[in-house]
Write a structure and sequence with these properties.
The chain has 212 residues and is mainly β. It has helices at residues 2-24, 51-54, and strands at residues 29-30, 38-39, 60-69, 75-80, 87-94, 97-103, 120-127, 136-139, 146-154, 157-159, 171-179, 182-193, 200-211.
Length: 212
């Protein structure tokens, strides 16, 4: 009789243990990798939020270019706290390469060459080492797995974020969402060294939102 009681108690404890394990499996788990993934109860990666769900804010971009010698050997200047995006494009070339363009002029307003106030922001978004284009911080550097290559096309030529070892890092762009419908995130690219004319002051900051 005593043996039956012990077996019954063990069975109850086993049932409680199984119940608790089942409840826990309903909660999302995270991996220990560099980029955290949300995992569903089946062990597959949970769906990421879409462009329409994530990208609610409009563009709010500021640009500063001054004391900067361009590739055309001219000093070019432009500054605005409200870069009005009149044309834009977002093209995913493959799962590790995409291109973002934003222009503050329409096709009709561009009459031949750009005037001094017409600027095109060009961003190549790049992933490597098995990573894919998606949310993340893309550094303006060739040494990172998630990186960006950002320039601005102007009347004075192509504007680069030149840099030297004594300066703070340039920064990059933080992408909140990037899929076939569009992309949104934040620019944070800054260099400021007016003593060196090939560096000068070049700043690009603020939120961007481009629907394909």
């Amino acid at each position: 009789m005593k043996k039956i009681s012990i077996s019954a108690a063990a069975l109850i404890l086993l049932s409680i243990s199984v119940f608790n394990t089942s409840c826990g499996s309903k909660e999302a788990e995270t991996t220990g990798s560099d980029s955290t993934k949300i995992v569903s109860p089946t062990g597959t990666e949970a769906p990421k939020a879409s462009y329409s769900e994530t990208c609610k804010d409009g563009n709010a971009i500021s640009v500063t270019i001054k004391d900067k010698k361009t590739d055309l050997k001219t000093n070019y200047g432009f500054e605005t706290t409200n870069f009005e995006v009149k044309q834009s494009s977002w093209k995913i070339q493959n799962d590790s390469t995409a291109e973002l363009r934003l222009m503050n002029y329409t096709a009709e307003e561009l009459k031949g060459e750009k005037n001094k106030d017409q600027v095109e922001i060009v961003v190549m978004v790049l992933a490597r080492m098995g990573k894919k284009i998606g949310p993340g911080n893309y550094i303006q550097s060739s040494q990172t797995d998630l990186r960006c290559s950002t320039t601005m096309e102007t009347m004075g030529g192509t504007i680069y974020w030149n840099w030297n070892a004594n300066m703070p890092e340039v920064g990059g762009i933080n992408i909140d969402c990037a899929d076939s419908d569009g992309v949104c995130g934040t620019f944070n690219l800054n260099v400021d060294n007016t003593k060196v004319d090939y560096i000068g002051t070049v700043k690009l900051n603020g939120k961007f939102n481009v629907k394909k």
